[in-house]
Structure formats: structure tokens, C-alpha cells
């Protein structure tokens, strides 16, 4: 029976590992279970050193260790808080990923792309892009205990990726909170004796039809001027948003009522984040669980509406011909980014507060699975409602029922709730409170990523001071989206800052980690951290499939690029310039910081030599805690030595070596050779 190699830390270190999902609770961390019976005589030197009383003395004799620890920040890890328990981290990740994107953006993206035609590409993209990226970012944060900017000590040449992601995340959170403000408006409007969008008012459009009417009453209504429009749609567009038909003459001034709701939304987000993970972790339980209860209640009620089955069939029925449509694949990819919040720094931020040996593999699988389940649940709910709405309006083509965008959440859902026979006000309050909770969960993660990045840059500042300053800036920025032309700007910023920018930076991120730092280096880091071998699926996705797939989708988006529109109308040139500026400003961060890093080297090397040096890990790269860092360095040294011995012994060519790394074959060779000792 093979023995289990272990590291036993001194008593003072045990608390650091006590919460590890791979530990035994006694300060012992399990490593590889594939050692031979005589492993005690042939154990790696780094394990022997780790268990010896002179561990630090031995390690300090290693030149590589001395070099990499020369500028290690003092007490960097001790000053960083951790989650109170493992469940808080998991719940926070769920509340982050399961947000408005699942109930609002996923259904309208599926709606725009033919319903069932969208599901198959989405599920495929989940496995080849979503999960690999989610696991990567979770591992990056936990391995370094740093924010999305500081992790780029792995390759300082690409530090601008983290800064560019901050630009994208700031763009997203600025409009995201404005949607939360709309949910607050609807929550309080639902306490009226009659839902204000349930019936048409005298001064509304002539072709308005009451949302509260059932199908027979609706078809018998005497509206004859043009196509019928539900009262819920008129209420949202004309009463709440006061939306403009064009922004050629400007976007207008912020609505004072929505300004108050926006302020309240930012106050809530600030209060949740005031103590960092110590406060947000406690709220995460409610933020993660409550939405499921309400969503299931709404789904059960929606399925009982007339025409709901037609909507569900439209949602789940695959249209095989659309699998060859690149637009559907592009939409599936961009939706996945929005849904899982990958590429925005929030995943890295949350996992940076973990214990170093926490089982993130398990958590990544749970979160990505739950996120997909929630998207399908939200899709079933809204397409049931769309089927009912098409039935009531006498429209056979469900894809023509309502326009996409924010309207699906603030028109279709309220329209269905208005038809509820029993206390529609209660269902309305529950539904919009659910949207509020979903929005807060995601906004807390996004805004927390921004605050953490600034906190890492200015560690002497109090966290709550930064939270207050950045929340105030966020509120001022969000005023743009509650103007009559705000939804025009929202779609534009979402297109360039929240989608296009984040996506391009994610491609560069993949290239920097797996093609510059190296797939083998990264897999060794993960194996050291989580004590499990990186499987073939992850190696193939990280090293080949995911980057190439993302690049192919990006090339398609460039070839087929069309200027964004809102409700079928073109944007004014000035608005397009502003949107493009957000994208260019974010991308330029990569170039600016790369030049800054290269020119910062005062050596007399050539330009190429400086670039090569800047692309290599800095002395700050690696685990934060001192004892873990030293064990990792020794582990890396011995892993490289064993791999080099096999490479030279087998005399592999460069191409064969790359294939062996991609398929993890050198790990197999090392294990095979170790069993022969």
C-alpha cells in the first residue's frame, strides 16, 4: 500500500493549515499518495527539509530562495483577513456569479438568439471556456493572496491586464447599480393598492392594453390604433425611465426619484462592504439562498399561465441549423463572461482571502454548475411568461413579443405578475426584492474587487475609507444611467466596457499565464497548492482549446462587426466615440504598463533582453506566507530537476517536449521512475 507523503509544520504554523480541505486537522497536509513503499528512504529533499527542525536554515542556503525573498513585503499575509469559514467563501462566490445576468441578461440573450438555438452552444462554451477560466482565476487569487492587479508579478510585462480589468469592472458596476435602483423603485411601487402598471391610465397611449387582463378580455379590448402595447411596457419606458426616442440632443437630466433609489442602492453596497469579507461573508448566506426560493415560486406560478408551455418549448427546443451560426457562439461566449463574472477581478479578489490549501477545485465546480442551473431556471421562468404574453397579445411568433434588453426584466415579469389572481402585490414585492438581492450580491463582488485593488496599492489606508470614497464616485457616475437617455448609454457601455474589453483582456490573460509563464509552471503551482494532479481536461483547455477558441470568436467578432444600435436606431457619433474610448483606454493599459515596466529596467541589456526579463516572474511572485513560500520554492526546484533529468535522458525534441507538457506526460514519467527506486 503506497504511503502518503506529508508536511508537518511547527505548532505555530498549524493554524494556517487547520481549515485546509486537504489537511487532517493536526497541521498535516496530504500531498501525493502515489509514493512507493520505501518512500521514506527516497523522499524529495523539500519534504525532508519541511519536516526537519532546521528547515529555514537549509532553505536560506538556496540562492533562488534568497533572490525571490529579497523584497518580500513584510507581514504581507499577516495583514490580510481570511474568510471566517469555507462556506462563507462558497456562498459569496454563488451570490457573485448568480446575479442579474442569470435572470435578466441570460433570458434576453437567449431570446435574441432563437431560444433553444442558444442553449447547446452555451453549454459547450461553459466547458471549454467558462470552467477553465473560472478555475484559473480562483487559483490565481488563492495562490498569491493578492488582487487582480498584484497577481501580475507572475509576468510584470502584463501588469496592465489587471489595470485594464479594473476599467472594465468599473464600467460594469457603474450601470449595474442603476439596475438595482430600478428594482428598488418597483419594490416600493408594489405596495400600492393596485400595481401601477396593471392598468392603462387616461393619458397613456391609445393602443395601451391592461396587463392585468386575461386573454379573452384582452382580445375583446377596443384598441384599434396600431399594435397593442401592454401597460407594463408603457409604465416602464414612459413613466419610470421617461425614455427618449433619440439622444441626438443629449441624454437629459437624472430623474430625482431614481437618484434617491440609486443613492440607497450604493448605501446598501457600502454597508455590506464596510468591513471587507468580515461583513460581506455574513450577508452572503442570504444573498445566495433567498433568490432561489423566490425564483422557484415565480416559476411554478408562471407555468400555470396560458401559453406558458409554448414559451418553454421555444426556450428548450434546439434549432440545429443555428449551431453553424457564429453569432450564436459569440453571444454564448459573451453571456458566459457576464454570468460567471470571469475576467473582472472579483473571483480573484474573493479567493485571495482563502487559506492557501483550500479546495477551490470543488468550489469552482459547484459554482459553475449552480450558475448554469440558475440561468436555465431563469430562462424557463421568463419564457413561460413570454409564452403567456404572446398568447394574450395574439402574437404567434414569441420572438416578436417584446424588445430585448432591460425590458425583459421590467416589462415581461411585471406583466405576468399583474395577471396573478391572488395578492399580486406580494408576488411583485418578492420578485423585485429577489432582483435586488441578486444585484447586490454581484455588485458587492465587483465593487469589492475595485476596493481590494486600491487597498493592495495603498495598504496604509483603512478599508472602509476606500470603500466610502469609491462608492461615492460610483454613485456620481451612475447618475448618467438614470437620465431619459440612460438606457442608451447603458447598452453602449455594456457593449464596449462590459463585454468587448473584458473579453479581449481575458484572451491576453490566458496567453500570459499559459504561453508566457508556462503551462507546466502553472500546473506545478496548482498541484502544490491543492495537492491534486491537474487533469488532462484542464491541461488541454488551458494550453490549447480555450485560448484558441477565444481567439477564433474574437476574430469572428471583428470580421462581422456592426456598430451597436439601441431599439434598432443608430447611436450618434459622439456617443460611439465615448464607448470606443472606454474600450481603447482599457486596452491601452496593457501597452502603457508594458512600456513602463520595460523602460524601468536600468540594465544595459538590449530592448529584447529587457522585454524577456520583464516577462519573467518577479521576486514577489508566489505564496504570501513565508513558510509556504519557502516550501513552494523547494518543491519547484526539485520538480524542475526531475523533469530536466527525464528530458535529457529521453532526448526529446522541442515539439515532443511541448506535447509532453500539454498532456502531463512528464508527471507520469516522474511517477513511473519513482516507483522503480
Automatic annotation (TrEMBL):
State its location(s): Membrane
Q: Which GO terms describe its biological process?
A: amino acid import across plasma membrane
Extract the Pfam families matched here. SNF (PF00209)
Region Disordered: what ranges? 1-30
Tell me if rRNA-binding is a UniProt keyword of this record: no
The UniProt entry lists membrane topology as: Multi-pass membrane protein
Q: Does the keyword RNA-binding apply?
A: no
Functionally, this protein is described as follows:
Unusual broad substrate spectrum amino acid:sodium cotransporter that promotes absorption of the D isomers of essential amino acids. Neutral amino acids are the preferred substrates, especially methionine and phenylalanine.
Q: Which PANTHER family match?
A: SODIUM-DEPENDENT NUTRIENT AMINO ACID TRANSPORTER 1-RELATED (PTHR11616:SF321), SODIUM/CHLORIDE DEPENDENT TRANSPORTER (PTHR11616)
**Name assigned to this protein:** Transporter
Q: What is the lineage of its organism?
A: Eukaryota, Metazoa, Ecdysozoa, Arthropoda, Hexapoda
Amino acid at each position: 500500500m503506497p504511503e502518503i507523503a506529508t508536511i508537518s509544520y511547527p505548532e505555530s504554523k498549524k493554524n494556517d493549515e487547520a481549515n485546509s480541505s486537504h489537511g487532517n486537522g493536526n497541521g498535516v497536509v496530504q500531498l501525493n499518495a502515489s509514493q512507493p513503499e520505501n518512500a521514506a528512504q527516497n523522499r524529495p529533499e523539500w519534504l525532508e527539509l519541511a519536516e526537519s527542525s532546521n528547515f529555514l536554515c537549509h532553505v536560506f542556503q538556496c540562492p533562488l530562495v534568497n533572490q525571490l525573498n529579497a523584497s518580500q513585503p513584510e507581514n504581507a499575509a499577516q495583514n490580510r483577513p481570511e474568510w471566517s469559514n469555507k462556506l462563507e467563501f462558497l456562498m459569496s462566490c454563488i451570490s457573485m456569479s448568480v446575479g442579474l445576468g442569470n435572470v435578466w441578461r441570460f433570458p434576453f440573450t437567449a431570446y435574441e438568439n432563437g431560444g433553444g438555438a442558444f442553449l447547446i452552444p452555451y453549454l459547450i462554451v461553459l466547458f471549454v471556456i467558462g470552467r477553465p477560466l473560472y478555475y484559473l482565476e480562483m487559483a490565481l487569487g488563492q495562490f498569491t493572496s493578492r488582487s487582480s492587479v498584484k497577481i501580475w508579478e507572475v509576468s510584470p510585462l502584463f501588469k496592465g491586464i489587471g489595470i485594464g480589468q479594473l476599467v472594465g469592472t468599473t464600467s460594469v458596476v457603474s450601470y449595474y447599480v442603476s439596475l438595482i435602483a430600478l428594482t428598488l423603485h418597483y419594490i416600493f411601487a408594489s405596495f400600492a393598492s393596485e400595481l401601477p402598471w396593471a392598468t392603462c391610465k387616461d393619458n397613456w397611449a391609445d393602443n395601451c392594453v391592461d396587463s392585468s387582463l386575461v386573454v379573452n378580455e384582452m382580445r375583446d379590448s377596443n384598441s384599434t390604433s396600431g399594435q397593442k402595447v401592454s401597460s407594463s411596457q408603457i409604465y416602464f419606458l414612459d413613466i419610470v425611465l421617461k425614455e427618449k426616442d433619440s439622444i441626438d440632443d443629449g441624454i437629459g437630466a437624472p430623474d430625482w426619484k431614481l437618484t434617491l433609489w440609486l443613492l440607497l442602492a450604493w448605501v446598501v453596497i457600502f454597508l455590506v462592504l464596510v468591513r471587507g469579507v468580515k461583513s460581506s461573508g455574513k450577508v452572503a448566506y442570504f444573498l445566495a439562498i433567498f433568490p432561489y426560493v423566490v425564483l422557484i415560486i415565480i416559476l411554478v406560478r408562471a407555468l400555470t399561465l396560458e401559453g406558458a408551455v409554448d414559451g418553454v418549448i421555444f426556450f428548450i427546443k434546439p434549432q440545429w441549423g443555428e449551431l453553424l451560426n457564429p453569432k450564436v457562439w459569440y453571444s454564448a461566449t459573451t453571456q458566459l463572461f457576464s454570468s460567471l463574472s470571469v475576467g473582472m477581478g472579483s473571483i480573484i479578489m474573493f479567493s485571495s482571502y482563502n487559506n492557501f490549501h483550500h479546495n477551490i477545485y470543488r468550489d469552482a465546480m459547484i459554482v459553475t454548475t449552480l450558475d448554469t442551473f440558475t440561468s436555465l431556471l431563469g430562462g424557463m421562468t421568463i419564457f413561460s411568461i413570454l409564452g403567456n404574453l404572446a398568447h394574450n397579445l395574439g402574437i404567434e411568433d414569441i420572438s416578436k413579443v417584446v424588445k430585448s434588453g432591460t425590458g425583459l426584466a421590467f416589462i415581461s415579469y411585471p406583466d405576468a405578475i399583474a395577471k396573478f389572481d391572488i395578492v399580486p402585490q406580494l408576488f411583485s414585492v418578492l420578485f423585485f426584492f429577489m432582483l435586488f438581492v441578486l444585484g447586490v450580491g454581484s455588485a458587492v463582488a465587483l465593487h469589492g474587487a475595485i476596493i481590494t485593488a486600491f487597498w493592495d496599492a495603498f495598504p496604509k489606508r483603512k478599508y472602509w475609507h476606500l470603500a466610502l470614497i469609491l462608492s461615492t464616485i460610483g454613485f456620481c457616475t451612475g447618475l448618467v444611467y438614470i437620465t431619459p437617455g440612460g438606457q442608451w448609454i447603458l447598452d453602449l457601455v455594456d457593449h464596449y466596457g462590459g463585454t468587448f474589453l473584458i473579453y479581449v483582456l481575458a484572451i491576453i490573460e490566458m496567453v500570459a499565464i499559459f504561453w508566457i509563464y508556462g503551462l507546466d509552471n502553472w500546473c506545478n503551482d496548482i498541484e502544490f497548492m491543492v495537492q491534486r494532479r491537474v487533469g488532462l481536461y484542464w491541461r488541454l483547455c488551458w494550453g490549447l482549446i480555450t485560448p484558441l477558441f477565444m481567439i477564433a470568436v474574437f476574430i469572428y467578432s471583428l470580421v462581422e462587426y456592426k456598430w451597436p444600435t439601441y431599439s434598432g436606431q443608430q447611436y450618434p457619433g459622439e456617443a460611439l466615440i465615448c464607448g470606443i474610448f472606454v474600450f481603447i483606454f482599457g486596452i491601452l493599459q496593457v501597452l502603457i504598463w508594458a512600456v513602463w515596466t520595460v523602460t524601468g529596467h536600468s540594465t544595459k541589456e538590449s530592448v529584447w533582453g529587457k522585454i524577456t526579463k520583464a516577462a519573467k516572474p518577479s521576486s514577489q511572485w508566489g505564496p504570501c506566507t513565508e513558510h509556504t513560500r519557502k516550501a513552494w520554492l523547494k518543491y519547484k526546484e526539485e520538480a524542475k530537476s526531475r523533469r530536466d533529468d527525464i528530458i535529457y535522458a529521453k532526448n526529446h525534441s522541442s515539439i515532443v517536449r511541448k506535447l509532453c507538457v500539454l498532456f502531463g506526460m512528464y508527471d507520469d514519467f516522474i511517477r513511473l521512475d519513482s516507483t522503480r527506486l
